[in-house]
Amino acid sequence: MSEYAIEAVGLHRTYRSRTGWLRPRRREVVAVRGVDLAVRRGELFGLLGPNGAGKTTTIKLLNTLLLPTSGTARVAGYDVVRQTREVRRRIGYVFGGDRGLYDRLSARDNLRYFAELHGVAPREQRHRIDELLDLVGLTGRDSERVEGYSRGMRQRLHIARGLLHHPEVLFLDEPSIGVDPVAARELRQTVADLAANGTTVLLTTHYMAEADELCDRIAVIAGGRIRASGTPADLKRHAEGRQVLEVEAYGVTDRQLAEIHQLPGVREASLRVLGAVQLLTVQSAAGTDVQAEVLRVLAGIRLGRVLSRQPTLEDAYVAIVSGTTAADAPEPALSGTAVPV
Questions:
Q1: pTM for the model
Q2: CA 61, 67, 71, 73 torsion-angle sign
Q3: How far is CA 77 from CA 62, 202, 304, in A?
Q4: Membrane-spanning regions, if any (predicted)?
């Protein structure tokens, strides 16, 4: 038996469409461009990337919902194209959002319904459902209609649904999206418990702190390609030696952001809106203090907190995706140096 639960070599996926009626034109969009992955059994593996990077397409190729245009993949030892039924028997798929549950049924009735679809033996269903409700913290709320559940409770029920048939591999596609901080913490604990009990988990998320806390290894995908892969500590080396300046501001313009990008020593500058506040993050080369110049560019607008700090996984992620990683940072070995399939 292979040590890998997921093996992919050279996965490509191209979407083809036609536009127009009288003069139809064919259009091709390449979503995944040669992805290699190798995820060990029992590992909690993170797949990070911006919107449109190819994360969800990659997961759908691995869980048989899409066929690859080229390349090969095996999940739980079975080929995703030639042995689709065997793969589906051994995987679970949990996606973020409200879809996939019946609101007018209780949590227990939802799980009974999906247990039948997954072929769970009737004599095992009650025990398995009780076990999963306890695992995801819904015992005592299982007789309530799902329409009255919070987003966090729905996500935990999604996880229970995905585990009904004892899958070897669980795909979690942004399970904590839109969930409040308390519910997100409970979800993280549930996911960590799954991996601790031997389930292989492939997780996609936009939350860097979540990936840093949970994942044994992480791959960063952008433009349909794996840009970097390794442990969280490996990836942080992509921003090693940099300085990070954070500025809370009110009214930073695109012109000012572009000017900051052009300052000597600046490697990356990004702007996020957090309610009424803008958070400007500037990464600079080692030994280069850009604070005075940044504040000069921002002269005339209201500022809040100004902080210099060490790089985090999020800073490394921004550097990897933007292609501005430190030149002296050692490239971690690609965890997707996949074995032949």
A1: 0.79
A2: positive
A3: 12, 16, 54
A4: none
